[in-house]
Amino acid sequence: MNETSAMLLDSGGLDRLIGVLGARGFRTIGPVVADGAIGPGPIRHVVDLPQGWHDEQAPGSYRLHRDDDPRLFAWAVGPRSWKGELFPPRSVVWRSSGEGDSLEIVPVVDEAPPVAVIGARPCELAALSILDRVLGTSTHPDPVYRARREAAFVAVVECSTPASTCFCTSMGTGPAVGDDRAGDEGVDLVLTELAGDERHHFLVRAASPLGGEVLAELGGEPAPGWAWSARDRLLAAAEGAIGRALDTDGLAPLLARNLDHPRWDEVAERCLSCGNCTLACPTCFCSSVEDVSDLTGTVERHRRWDSCFDLGYSYVHGGPVRTSVSSRYRQWATHKLSTWFDQFSTAGCVGCGRCITWCPVGIDLTEEAAAIRASDGAGARAYARAGAAGGDQP
Amino acid sequence: MARTAERPAKAGTSLVPLAYRVAWRRRETADVVTIALEAVGESLAPFRAGQFHMLTAFGVGEVAISVSGTPGAPGPVEHTIRDVGAVSHALSRLPVGGVVGARGPFGTSWDVTGLADEDVVVIAGGIGLAPLRGAVHQLSGRRGPGRLTVLVGARTPDQLVFADDVRRWRELGADVRLTVDAATPDWGGEVGLVTSLLASASFDPARTVGLLCGPEVMMRFAAADLADLGVDPSRIRISLERNMQCGAGICGHCQLGPLLLCRDGPVVTYGGAVAALMGQVER
Ligand SMILES: Cc1cc2nc3c(=O)[nH]c(=O)nc-3n(C[C@H](O)[C@H](O)[C@H](O)COP(=O)(O)OP(=O)(O)OC[C@H]3O[C@@H](n4cnc5c(N)ncnc54)[C@H](O)[C@@H]3O)c2cc1C
Ligand code: SF4
Ligand code: SF4
Ligand code: FES
Predict the structure, then answer these.
(1) Could you tell me if B145 and B264 lie in one domain?
(2) Closest-approach residue (CA) in chain B for A148
(3) What is the mean pLDDT of residues A230-240?
(4) In the predicted structure, residue A389 carries a pLDDT above the cut 60
(5) Domain boundary among A206, A241, A276
(6) Interface residue B251 vs chain A (CB under 8 A)
(7) A393: in domain
């Protein structure tokens, strides 16, 4: 990270950031408290941010409480990720009208104003990078995601307060934004919230030309040395506070050779196949389409998020391919941690822990992977990973 | 992802179909129809044998349909459809002049253009001959020492498709053999599984390429039999089917383990991951 383009702002400066982005035409979205959880919502001023709020997370449980903590970002992640801002849960792909040779098919172009995401977490930035690969830069990119992502402004706030469900350190995605991200155009500003001794500041570094331009408009003082060392201490403490781990060493081939492991049936006895995990996951990208017509002959193709836990997801003529809950949980878990590498040359998991917190029965992906590792080979059927899409697989 | 200050003026069109009109239609069997499609305006990119289009019946829905015509052939593009559900029914019923939406072409091909010297064994079950038809046309016209064997199975004689093509392939020197599961009184040919035809077919396993399409269990047995006869599993190509919502690699539905079948398939090499994953694992 280039230290010369770093500034120290107070919360007035953060307020100006929101204002400057709004004035530049961005729809400013940040974490807000709604329905008992912290999640993306419109923000106009610093007062809209969740000052003093903390989240307490455990497998199957999430609770908010508030105290007189001056910090705005002293919590981990909520159930709704930023995915929904860039890849809307529902959208219309095209519309057609008329008949025969005069039939017209018109793409529905996304008209949403560009979004400024203020307060995404480092793991969520990593999730956006994964979606960039899957939806943004594939041979046939998704036009809505691509347009929204290209136009978006992203300000990340590093993590001071990880939850018990977080395992970003295992996935290499947090709690800091890695220095290797400098110059990565997927992020514009990186903030660290520093509070203590009556002081409350944000160390703000520009990570893109636009980020630098915006930062220059905010005033504030160049980041002093103490702010950098305070950041180091804060992030070291955050890293130390992460209690959950996933052993990723050789994990992709491990799962690929344990497809018949009895653990899949065991977890299926608990799994409700509700799909909460896929809904909350910041990298799950599956969607389905449905054509809707009206009496005038207009047809619209609607697209909505879908989940591999849905029985109809794998439907082919004659019935679904994955009928058992066991096969569907295995599809999901092996996709996240194994076949995603084959398909997209990256993991499909960033260790945000949402699937653990928001699973109604508290199923823990890290625990399932560890159980399979503990009795590697108990599953008879294996396949050699041919490396369909190549890539740097662990 | 590189960021530009402005949005692209025109969003990608791979998710938006082009209008195609039914130029002619031919009934193949009681529930199978071939419809030949020509562009109303702008055309799709040329296809390769084995690739598929996403066809929309307006107001009903969209399904993946393989191109059954021959690459490079002039005229409308043929698609052979079995009427089994809502969308295939609507597509099958379209009259000449009816308009559909078409996207693609998507996926991998049979990749037969390089095969001059090889013996090729084509094994098809039922309507599985449709995605292979273009490849067989290409192979039956090739010059070279390689022999062409086409083995086709159907449930009953009246479910055998492409009788005219079979005649033509035979005239061009291909060894085409047909079999049915259940004979009718007028059937004088073979009765039994398509794999039973392999025993009498003449090909040199060491220089044979297998091209398979049909129900997954049929392909599994046929591929295993070919491998037992000495054909290298990496030279056996099969065409797989899964739910497909996008064809473009972004909806997730067509996964088979490490593969996205709309992108890495539908034609994949048997062996490795595919042999282990087909049919069995995903209950
Ligand atoms: C690569 C590829 C090539 C193909 N080529 C051909 C071909 O050449 N000829 C041919 O006839 N067929 C082909 N098919 C099969 C074809 O795509 C359709 O699956 C088939 O025509 C049946 O579609 P349908 O809507 O008529 O039938 P249905 O059985 O009603 O439905 C099949 C489709 O409808 C949806 N659907 C229906 N019911 C449900 C439910 N309960 N839950 C969720 N989804 C549901 C799904 O999208 C499903 O894919 C191919 C398939 C693939 C993947
Ligand atoms: S799989 Fe779970 S921990 Fe991993 S990114 Fe998705 S929700 Fe987060
Ligand atoms: S793992 Fe948990 S959240 Fe996911 S489908 Fe099963 S019960 Fe639902
Ligand atoms: S059909 Fe959508 S990803 Fe393959």
Answers:
(1) yes
(2) B7
(3) 95
(4) no
(5) A241
(6) yes
(7) no
